[in-house]
Amino acid sequence: MHIDDFGTRMKHYENAFRHHLPGRMPVLIRIDGCHFHTFTKGMNKPFDEPLIHVFWETCKYLAQNIMGCKLAYHQSDEISILLTNYDKLTTASWFENNLQKIVSVAASMATAKFNEEICNVYPDRPLATFDARAWVLPQDEVTNYFLWRQMDATKNSISMVAQANFPHHELQGLDGSALQEKLFSEKALNWNDLPAWQKRGACIVKKEFLKGTAVRRRWEADLDTPVFSQDRDYINRFVYLDREKGV
């Protein structure tokens, strides 16, 4: 058998499982930490600030290096990334929307950068690992996706604060409102007074800053990320670029 024919046959097997996301639609990538309950054992509860900053640095790295990234959102041990590929008629997609490439490279980048950063603050921790998934959404559903993840962040935040202040058996059967009431009445702790990033996560967006007399832009964590149900334009401004530019 000729070597080229042999290689072609092998490529047929490989290509049968080579899937591509549809073009010119918003792409969502969600990257999750694997077994992070074990990884974070012994860290400060309910919010370990060095760990959070490591996640933000990881988000910045991903946003800067993933083509078409418009924003990243961090909560708990997960990162959600919004990509668009329709800014112009000639705009290309990251890895031509090859699904296997997107998820494998995104997970690899997150794992490498996170471990580089975490070693600076927790040098004795085992290495962390991340998985990733990616899909497309209709434009009108993108803000709803981030709202869904933000609602999960809020639920997690209330639970974590409660668990840091009460034994498990005292919290069984209590919903979010009851947990907040218990925190306030028994610990004089008003969950609503926590910083926004502790209550609902944070977006990483490009912000302008002055360098001398020049205006520059860099990826930074928005510590006042709003409630998306109250400010849908916060996400929508990154989604509806085609309507603004007619492309």
TrEMBL record:
Superkingdom of the source species: Bacteria
Xref: PANTHER family: TRNA(HIS) GUANYLYLTRANSFERASE-RELATED, TRNAHIS GUANYLYLTRANSFERASE CATALYTIC DOMAIN-CONTAINING PROTEIN
Pfam families hit by this protein: Thg1 (PF04446)
Protein name: Guanylyltransferase
Classification via InterPro entries: tRNAHis_GuaTrfase_cat, tRNAHis_GuaTrfase_Thg1, tRNAHis_GuaTrfase_Thg1_sf
A single MF term (Gene Ontology): nucleotidyltransferase activity
All copies of domain tRNAHis guanylyltransferase catalytic, residue ranges: 8-138
Organism whose genome encodes this protein: Saccharibacillus endophyticus
Coiled-coil region: none
Alphabetical keyword list: Nucleotidyltransferase, Transferase
